[in-house]
Amino acid sequence: MPRPTGRVLTLLELLQSGGTRTVAELADRLGVDGRTVRRYVEHLIDLDVPVESIRGRYGGYRLGPGYRLPPLMLAEDEALAVLLGLAAGRRAGLPGAGSTAGETASAKIRRVLPKHVAGRLAALLDSLAFTDPSRPAAAPAPVPDAEVLLTLADAVRHRRPVSLRYTDRSGHRSERTLHAYGIVAHEGRWYVTGADPGTGEDCGTGEQRTFRLDRITDARPLPGCFEAPTDHDPALQLLAGFAAAEYRHEVVLRVRATVGQVRAHLPATVAGVTELAPTADEGEQWLRVELRAERLDWLPPVLAALDRPFVIERPSELRALVTAFANRLASHALRT
Prior knowledge:
alpha+beta, six-stranded mixed sheet, 11 helices
């Protein structure tokens, strides 16, 4: 039978979940009578926990504001959410997230976690990578299942194969085996990269080889282990996969610019950039820029904003669009 101290802590956890709890509800959850519930509430008040008594037909108890934070009771998924929030805040440079307060808050949570939970959360935080944000998410992204996330993180740390149940963007369901290399957070979504042992291809080289975590309904560890490449960068692999995704048009440009100048207008999620050897007659750095696009009409304004010399290798349709765009700009400039 739980000891009274354990029931008092359980009462605190119930009140922290929000709302007003009736005496009858609390008594049922704790397995005690109403008089004992009131005694437990008095214990919390003696500990300076701000418990308010609400009178009336729908009355009961709730937590109110206090002069200091009471002890917090976090479930496993809640602790995961807090630690991931602190990690993401440090990455984004949010005020306080990367400060001493953020570090100590994370340390306090990790220090009191049960051993098996702490190990799984540590595996996730160690295997997690972030891409540089290129634009804010247009809408809240689907949230991955916490158990799937933790299972994949454990697979990354211990180099264990996993079996996935996956639904692709067309709704096709399949079971896959994955050698997971890393987990990446990108623009509000979560991905896992790795290798498909059935094909030997890297998962980050295309859409079907990078898995969105919210589309994984089940992840189970398999026997055995694997060796991951030492130079694998999950975030770069993911971005390269986006840039190489299948679209209607394949665009190849040569641009006389620095990588930074190109990336200011064409992020890594959109285009791949390769440095070309400088020619003897020009002596300046040229870059090959490759991207795929469903439409081409957005590219002429981007090239104009880049404002650097460029050569369109393909497609020919883009040359016509750029010429037409330049003519429109020239006609507008001549108006008086």
